[in-house]
Amino acid sequence: MVRNIGWRFTLIAAIVGLLGWQAYKGVTQGDLELGIDLKGGSELIFKFDFTDIDDTRKQAVLKEAIGVIEQRVDRFGLKDIVIQPIGNDRFAVQVSAQDKANVDSIKSLVTNLGELQFRITVEPGAENYKEYWKKYQERKKKGLADKVAAQINVEDLIASDRDRYPYGLRWFPLSDAARDRNWSARVPTEDGKSQPFILCKLDGENITGASLEGVSHQRDLQGLGGGWGVYFNVKKFSHRGLASLTSKKGDFMAIILNDQVHSAPTLQSRLSDSGQITGGFTEDSARSLAAILQAGSLKEKPQLISERTIAPELAGNARDRGVLSVLIGFCVVLGIMIYLYMGPGLLANLALLLNLVLLVGVLTWFGAVLTLPGIAGVVLTVGMAVDANILVFERIKEERGRGRSDLQAIGIGFDRALVTIVDANLTTLITAYFLFQIGSGPVRGFGITLAIGIIASMFTALYVTRTFFAWLLKRGGDSKIAKMKGEFKVTGVCWTNYMRKAVTFSACAMVVGALLWDLVPEKVKYDLDFTKGSKLIIRFSEPRSIESVGETMKGLDGGNKIYQGIAVRASASGIGADVATDMSSEYELRSQDIADAKQIEDFKSELSAAFAGKLLPGPLLATIKQGATGGATGRLFLVSNKANESVLRAVLAQYTDRTRRLEGATVKKAKTLPPGAGAAFELQFPNARPEHATEIALNVQRALSEFSITAAREALTKDSTDENKRRSEQEAAKATLTALADMSADDLDTYFAECDPFPLADRIDPSTAQEHRDAAVRAIALSILGIILYVAFRFRSWSFGFAAVVALIHDVLVVLGLVALANWAGLVDARLNLVTVAAFLTLIGYSINDSIVVFDRIRENHGNRRSGLKEIINRSINQTLSRTIRTTTTTWIVVVILLVMNYGKNSALEGFAFILSLGVLIGTYSSVFIASPTLLFLPWLWEKTGSSVKGFAKAALPYVIGSAVLLIVVDAALGRIDFGGDFSLELFNNLTLAFPVGVLIFFLLRFVGYIRLEENAPEVAAT
User: Fold this and answer.
1) What is the pTM of this model?
2) Where are the beta strands (DSSP E) in 748-879?
3) Mean pLDDT, the chain, integer
């Protein structure tokens, strides 16, 4: 059956060992990167307007602009910032939870790239330097004390008021890359270090980045020393000005971006329509300078189009629910496989365990980010990974039933299941590819996880399991290894006889589904991803009724229109929390009208005022004030009640060497504990002032997040035995050691979780919503097209491809109708967004997986014989039904577990799991009653439409156009389309439905004619 078992085990051991080590590091050492939805933080998505840039250069320009932004962020001191490109014109900035206090500053840093300027420097040693310097000092004396260059106040140097710079002069600081210039003045900064500055003229021509175009870095072919140079063209309107600015050979021309000098090359000649900057640059330094010029010359600055902030506690709850879902699903699948297949089931379970190890190992190896939908991908992988093993085991049982020996049955079972497994999984990989293409972080994370899981499951099922089988049989494992429990055989059922009833029922279900989806209001069926708007989670200190929350919100800001129509939904937080009904301490507020960042902040302020004293207390930033004895005081509110004063003192003491603001900080427990808080502490900062509130909050948050128990224990142990310490200090160290005795690193996420009345805030602007809609339609359409082409190629027949697509359209329309109904009734939150689109794409992959299993058996049974297609279809369905039911049951149970764990928790996985729980069942039904019987109908229809794709499309097109017109007319008559405003969403809805509805009507009318002829017509042979 298998040769070279030893080499196979060696390969398996090498792969599992390598990726197992990666998985171990990922889980135990934190090497597996988590998305903000699992660890907390903020994600800001920005977009450039690259309309004036050639498509071939957009990605390069985006990369250069991101490089400039990264330099700015690094100078701001925020090292936990991740900037990633998205497509050719967008990028995401991910901010850790510890830096959330600086989100507004980061927005300003990114969106205000600063104007690129060209200035002529006034160099020390130059003829006019002394004259300029003398006049500068005289002017300074009029309003300030006499100071030399090394004592000029930094704030005075970099102020933006032009009047502060007499005689057209200004000092500009040098960037890090340019600080090696020895002719700059050095000025002390606030931290005691010296900052180099260059004196530049402000008079003369105003040449900015808007004057440049065609910036690039190339090899300096003319320079004597070789190296690289930066080249640029100048727009016509600036030719004269640049020539005037660069008229004097030998001057230094400072290149200034963000009020920092990045370079000051020597002018070799007058510049006019173009220029080159050379001087022995390395490739990296030339690329960096080109990036600066390119970013400064961009016509449009990046616009913030989407932002999301989630509190660490909320993310931690989601992460814990996801991990628990994986564990429960894994245990359920293990039990099912052992019950059904006994010994082979144990081998399948071992393969499943290896599958999870390989999945986590690959994610860690490539530095992929695990997101909340990514965890859903892991759960789904657990349910679907056993499909390949079930296919093999059912085939082995079949072969043993035909009298084969165990060795023969196992060999034939694996060989014949191979093609089916590959076909079924490759079609799912097609949908995984488009999942990766349609979205940013979370949805891409799901696509990556699903793809890796599919590949890993194929390896473990086809290679690892087969190797174990061969090894056990070689060691004398006879028929015991092939004994499997739970025989399930179906014979003699003529499924095609139910075709008329099934098609009638399914046609009605599809029509009702399409109508339901069209009639349900957009605010009910579409989420913010497709409509624009914002979503907030608001937390109260005590449970409140949904009626009281709604009544209070009605009076916001005197009935401001943007506050009208806000959807209020109760939820439950935490793993063990009950699903909220009418009473909850946490509510989700969703609005399609509040889409601007300032509107969200105003909305928070309005909510804080309206529910004064009733919200969860916090955060720290809002409570910092002037201390009675100087300095600043603040109140820290924690969710948990485990922390005490001594532990917090150790936390702040450990961080004190990072900033003087926390030096000498004192901690004491608050006398009163606000409702909803687990603990409250009074903090005093003698070296800080209230205006430093942002820095104080940031430092305290970092201190809490970066606290090391091991380092604290070492320091406290040393202090407790240090004879130079006072006895009181030694006793305090011992008390803190006692408090830390039962703590572990795993406790820190919840131990120091801060109270936050607004733990989640999402915002999406209209242009992003439009892009999401376009991407969703594109992904679904391309997935279906890809499946048609692949199935048609593999089965050498268009009939199989179109039969599969008919089943897919059926599944999508029926599930859409049920989802619309469930949303309308308030039973579940399954609005259409990028995550639920991912669920529909997964449904498409799963449905085609089921259909291909039957199709493959039809192809095998037909072989080279010209037999009746009805008989072949019925026999094939009967032979594969055991596999279909068992795979469906396993996957459905796992998906339901995911739904139960996330139901009512304001989780993106609630709608995802709900759609799949419906789709798994409906997809199984369609593979038996729709896809396979359609093979009887399609050859007839193909012949009637001229046996060509063009004829088929020409026959169906009028029905698609008619459906679109009908849907638009109906919506217009019902007043659902406002032709005087923005009706893009309604048009998107109608055009999206028009194709499946039109094709459906076309198929049904032709199918009626086929059924009338079917009984008297000769049976159609397989093609």
Assistant:
1) 0.72
2) 760-764
3) 75
